[in-house]
Amino acid sequence: MRLRGVGVRLSLALLFVVALALGIVYLVVVPQLQRSLIDAKLNQLERAAPVVARDLPSNRFVWNDFAADASQSANARVVIFTNEIGPPLTLTVAGDSSLHSSDVANDPIAEQAAASVSLGRGTVTRGGEQLAEVALPVNRGKGVVLLASSLHDSLGNVDLVRRRLLLAGAIALAAALLIGYGGATVFANRIRRLERAAERIAGGRFDEPVVDRHRDELGELADAFDRMRGRLAQLEHARREFIANASHELRTPLFSLGSSVELLIDEEMDDETRREFLTTMRNQVHRLTKLATELLDLSRLDAGRLHVVLEPLDLGALADAVVAEFWASAEDHPVVLDTARPAFGVGDEQRVVQIGRILVENALVHTPPGTKVVVRTETRASGAVLTVEDDGPVIPAEHVANVFQRFYRIEGGLASGSGLGLAIGRELAELMGGRLELESRPGRTVFSLWLAAAAVEPDPGPRRREPVPT
């Protein structure tokens, strides 16, 4: 595993998280446990102190024996102070010889209780040992009873917990490192497989699928990669087909133009034949112009340089203009205009006309002679719509979802083309905030351009309509 790889970083991240969690547990649990044990010892002494003070005899000469008995019953060292003679606090009586020592002569807890004439409690360190002490004033503040107990056992328990917590933490860190390293290795291997798959796709190899059977984010990413691979494979296939088709589309008119020019130059012919050749040349130039225009539109769409001006439009008037353009050339296809119901939408006039031309031409080219083509406009609840309907052959269901893709052509159709017109129409519709849809069933194929309905009726005055190349 690479030291800078994702696997190492994930395992180190897991190790850090576990170490942080253990550190927090250590910092919270150990001090809290220590405070709890000390408080428990002080509470125990605090409960015993009033009992000792209550039973304290008035005869000072028996205090020594009383302290010894009280020490056993209270399970703590009992020291009795008096401030009647000598310094403010003077050790006068103890239960055994050790209590006669001067180690408690200046005990801070006893001095605190004597000064405040109230119960005092706390911990002190004496002779290297930590003690819990509770002091209670007696004889109306003239004396103090001190109970002291060692914290050795309690703090020993804390040390034991601390050692075991550290040991458990070390084991947990080692386990986290091993588990994290193993899991991160598996995770990193999956990422490397996706990396290799991306390199294959970038190199143009689309034959091998991208497979990851896990149902997590990486599995979803692998599925996305595989969908992208399939889409790129389709685009690559379409691109190759388009190059072949474009080459054919270019070669045929160029060859025809070249032949016609040679014949016009080298051969003597009558005026009628010359007109036929000129007509043929004009048609071939039209084909070349149309292909060049489609490629230019696509390049402008991809570069984001094709802009639209959205304004209220009378779709009926635009549909009328489109039908008028095809009226003379569609001799074997009756083109009918149905604008009985007014339709006002929001779009770019030039681009709506261009889309209308694309849809009508598509219906004329890809249907047999005699097919009726109806151009209709209307307003519906979801917006204004311009439809081009024909009663020609149905478009197979497997092709319906693909007809708007670039370079896509239905094999075996009645006529061939570049496969760009409908793709350009859809992208123009989306650029205007609309959409282009297809519905095809036996006896009825409908292309629909949907636009947002206009809030106000467009100005019926004269409009300047710039030509859009077809």
Structure description:
- This protein is an alpha+beta fold and 470 residues long.
- The chain contains ten helices and twelve strands.
- Strands 6, 7, 8, 9, 10, 11 and 12 form a seven-stranded mixed sheet that branches.
- A hairpin with a 4-residue loop joins strand 4 and strand 5.
- Helix 4 runs parallel beside helix 5, helix 5 packs antiparallel against helix 6 and helix 8 runs antiparallel to helix 10.
- The radius of gyration is 49 Å and the shape is elongated.
- It starts with 5 loop residues before the first helix and ends in a 17-residue tail after the last strand.
Sequence-ordered SSE layout with sheet pairings:
Layout: H1 6-55, H2 63-74, E1 77-82, E2 90-94, H3 108-116, E3 120-126, E4 129-138, E5 143-150, H4 152-202, H5 217-266, H6 271-303, E6 311-314, H7 315-327, E7 335-338, E8 344-347, H8 349-365, E9 373-380, E10 383-390, H9 397-400, H10 421-431, E11 435-441, E12 444-453
Parallel strand pairs: 7-9
Antiparallel strand pairs: 1-2, 1-5, 3-4, 4-5, 6-8, 8-12, 9-10, 10-12, 11-12
Helix pairs in contact: 1-4, 4-5, 5-6, 6-10, 7-8, 8-10
Task: Profile the largest sheet.
Answer: 7 strands, mixed
Number of helices: 10
The separation of the N and C termini measures 59 Å
Please report the total strand number as a whole number: 12
Q: Report the principal-axis shape.
A: elongated
Beta content comes to 15-25%
Helical content class? 40-55%
Provide the low-confidence segments as ranges: 91-100, 462-470
The average pLDDT score comes to: 79
Please provide the ordered H/E string of secondary-structure elements: HHEEHEEEHHHEHEEHEEHHEE
Helix-strand makeup class: alpha+beta
Give the C-alpha Rg. 49 Å
